Amino acid sequence: MKKIVFLILTLSLLLSCKTNDVKKIELEYASGIENIKHNLQREKIDLFEAYIEAKKYLSGLNEGTDAFIKCKAYIDEIISQIDKKATDLFKEKKYEDSLKYSLSLKTLNANPSIPLRDVYLEYSKKLDMSSDIFTRNSIKEDMANLGLLKNEEVFNFLKYYKDQKSSGFFFYYFDKYKKLYPSLITEFPQLNNYYDELKAFSNFNIEELMKSVVTVILNKGMNIKDGMGYFDKAIGSGFFIDDDGYILTNHHVIADHVDPKYKGYTAVYVTTRDDPDTEIPAQVIGYDKVFDIALLKIAKKNHKHLVLGRSDDMKVGDKIYTIGNPIGIKYTVTSGIISNKEIDFFQLGRAFQIDAAVNPGNSGGPVIDEKGQVIGIVFAGVPQYQGINFAIPFQWVIKTIPALYKGGEVKRSWIGAGIYNQKDRPEFYYVLPSGEASKAGIKVGDILQKIDGVEVKTVEDAQGELSWRQFPQLIEIEKENNGKKETAIVRLEERPYLPVAEAFEKDSQGKLITLVYGISLEYYDNNILFKKYKVDKVYKRMLGSMVEIGEGDPIIVYDLKYIEKDKMILFTVRFKKKDVGFLDRIITIPAYVEINTIL
């Protein structure tokens, strides 16, 4: 009996201590604001995440209450901390990092202590001594788009493209900035003359253009096959993009050289048209697996480079030329047309289909228009079919070049959502659990209208506007749902190389089928061996719309798996055939993991 009494007293004491601990925790973290502060102090979240969480907490409070007033004051405090961070980074001469905070303040309609123009100018000055003209021009373009340049600075920006004979870029920026800067033409009427000069100018001279094209060699040393030794070399093409020895080629040409999993010997060399027998050592500066491009550097300056053009202006049927080294036959020129501009080949944007002859060795070579300007890069062909080859449109390459100059693998931003083209309105059809879009309150069915005030009409518009921005950073998304317009402040974070692979780690089977195949499902039965769903919606032009599954149909999912080594997804499903209603059909639908509907 004494033992029982002792046990009861001990248990009561333990429960009493536990209850006191719980009360202490409740007192310490009872307020959502205190919890956010706690996580911020311990660097579990950054200032941008703290802002998002505080705004979300504020939305659940009654206006005028003490909790509401306290939360609003804390949000103002976070904005002050963002401003302080921008200022501190500026003083430390970390101008690129300072820009992330300064631009976030602009998104929040808050005036930074260091004017945004000053941050941009100091960042640009820091780059003036480097050979990276592409990042400098990217900075000037950002400033011009934000209305931060003076007329003279816009004029000098346009004159650069005039001097480079890059008519595509000059025409585009001329038309854009004469509207944004109304007195520009009045102050600098010579711009009209530049326009007329470039209209009449052509740089098309194949013999001269070939001097800017190179052979890229990946030397993998001596290897043995079937008991015989051989020199293992891969050959591709490339071309100079500036006077300082920088060259563009395909990532897959030099992939083993930058792949940490590859343990063998590799070295990259380049040979030029004027000295084809000398293999010049090349350094891989940066590479991008998404668009299959790489930036090389050789110790040879003042080499003639190609004029870079705008692929956006190209139309189906336009004449094009390629220069490369098919099967090792150096400096071969082929011609053809752009056959298709809507090829879903990449995770971002679309590829060109061309009918100019392309073979192994052409990879990385330029696609040139009739004015002699680069409008694409050859990257793939279909060997068993003639005239079906593919090129990377230069609109995506030019956005990526500044990131290549930074070195290493290119990194991009995302918000963790899926969008598809619904007429002229990009619609969110998927939101990643715990992703930045989800945290910002974006929902399936929301129509994306603007990103930081810039109108977007297609998935490609949205990806082009968002994916190349620096992260972390806050942006404003304007959206509409059932006629109601709303804005959401969203934090950008680093985009994984394969976003769908990350989704497979975080989301349920039904949602993953929606993301990859565009089939929205309503779950209604869980069997030990398989799951039953009813099809709620089939998104047009997505993979699921190509099979005989319709809205309202019951389906049975046998399997959904991601095969990492092949970058493939296999979806095995059972459904009734439309033409023979009493027969069930079981099919496996393959999908490539690099889908292009991710934002």
Textual characterization of the structure:
It is a single chain. The chain has 599 residues and is α+β, with helices and mostly antiparallel strands. Helix content is 35%, strand content 31%. It folds into five domains: 1-30; 130-201; 203-410, Thrombin, subunit H; 413-488, PDZ domain (Pdz3 Domain); 500-592, no CATH class. A hairpin with a 7-residue loop joins strand 13 and strand 14 (389-393). Helix 6 (116-128) packs antiparallel against helix 7 (133-145).
Structure keywords:
globular, disordered N terminus, 599 residues, alpha+beta, eight-stranded mixed β-sheet, 18 helices, six-stranded antiparallel β-barrel, Thrombin, subunit H
Low-confidence stretches: 1-30
Tally of helical segments: 18
Tell me the β content. Answer: 25-35%
CATH fold node name of the largest domain: Thrombin, subunit H
In spatial order, strands of the major sheet run 5-4-1-2-3-7-6-15
CATH class of the largest domain: Mainly Beta
What's the alpha carbon Rg, rounded to whole Å? Answer: 28 Å
Q: pLDDT average, as an integer?
A: 88
Q: Quick summary of this structure?
A:
The chain is an alpha+beta fold and 599 residues long.
Topology (elements, then pairings):
Layout: H1 2-29, H2 32-41, H3 47-59, H4 66-91, H5 95-107, H6 116-128, H7 133-145, H8 151-163, H9 167-180, H10 184-187, H11 190-200, H12 206-210, E1 213-225, E2 228-240, E3 246-249, H13 251-258, E4 267-272, E5 275-281, E6 283-288, E7 293-297, E8 307-308, E9 319-324, E10 332-343, E11 351-354, E12 366-368, E13 373-381, E14 389-393, H14 394-405, E15 408-409, E16 413-414, E17 417-422, E18 425-431, H15 436-439, E19 447-451, E20 454-455, H16 459-466, E21 473-481, E22 484-494, H17 499-506, H18 509-517, E23 519-526, E24 531-538, E25 554-563, E26 568-576, E27 584-592
Helix pairs in contact: 2-3, 3-4, 4-5, 5-6, 6-7, 8-9, 8-11, 9-11
